[in-house]
Amino acid sequence: MTPFSLFSTSVCLHLLILSDFIESPIDWLSGLARITDKVNNIARPSTGYDQTRLVHSSSSNDMDGHNWLHFSHGAIPQAAVVAGHDSDGDTIYIGRAFYCNDMLPAKIIPNKGKAYVAYANQEVELENYEVLSGSNYEWLPAENGDVPDGAVRVGQNVDGETLYAGRGYHSGSLTVGKVHPSHGCLYIPYDSEEVKIFAYEVLSRRMEAR
Fold first, then answer.
1. Rounded to whole angstroms, how far apart are CA atoms 154 and 180?
2. Which of 5, 102, 119, 169 reaches 20 to 30 Å from 35, CA-CA?
3. What is the pLDDT of residues 61-101, one digit of tens each?
4. Where are the alpha helices (DSSP H) in 47-151?
5. What distance in Å separates the CA atoms of residue 73 and residue 32, rounded to the nearest whole number?
6. Degrees (nearest 5) of the Cα angle 158, 180, 151?
7. For the chain, where are the E strands, in sequence order?
8. Contacts of 36 (CB under 8 A, 6+ apart)
9. DSSP letter string, 56-83
């Protein structure tokens, strides 16, 4: 018996079995609808499924034990670290993002759906980023490229220089940017520009948490 004959025989047997239960074309359609509905229910998430899970892809702990979570389009975790506020009052969170071979400290503004980094005299908007999550952080004063003990190493530039997250006041905002030690300043992304600030605060780990 050929494979085709075996297949035909199998189909016929199944049809004969079904014919005992289905007596009309209407029954056939009803049965098909029930099967389709079951398949859809298997594929469909249950009511109340947390859609924010689809935005959050993964997490990573860096070498210093900080928890960075991958998000996009303004989404943040519940334990995101608050960094400041925009000039319109929107809350800013601390993040970081990869851009032009640099891992850069970033300001994340959920209400605007973006992360922003300072790079090459510009404020650059990014949709994908990492958010710092956790507690036991504080902001300590510094100036002229210096950072305090316990400063969080957030990223580095293409030359391997460590970059830190700093914040400073500018035009009614308390904005996060990158402390670039060899440049002697904090750069913040603001209003499409990269703004220099020489007296600022640096994201640091609290003494008891080090």
1. 11
2. 5
3. 666 789 999 999 999 999 999 999 999 999 999 999 999 99
4. none
5. 41
6. 105
7. 59-61, 67-72, 82-85, 91-99, 102-109, 114-119, 122-126, 128-133, 137-143, 153-156, 162-170, 173-180, 185-190, 193-197, 199-205
8. none
9. ---EEE-TT--EEEEEETT---TTBPEE
Distance of alpha carbon 57 from alpha carbon 127, whole angstroms: 14
CA distance 166 to 145: 10
Which residue has tokens 């300043």?
185
**pLDDT at 205 > cutoff 80:** yes
User: What is the overall mean pLDDT for the chain?
Assistant: 80
Q: What is the DSSP secondary structure assignment for residue 151, as one 8-state letter?
A: B
**Domain residue ranges in the chain:** 3-43, 51-209
Whole-model pTM over 0.85: no
* Calpha distance 64→75 (Å, rounded): 24
Query: Distance between terminal CA atoms of the chain?
Result: 76
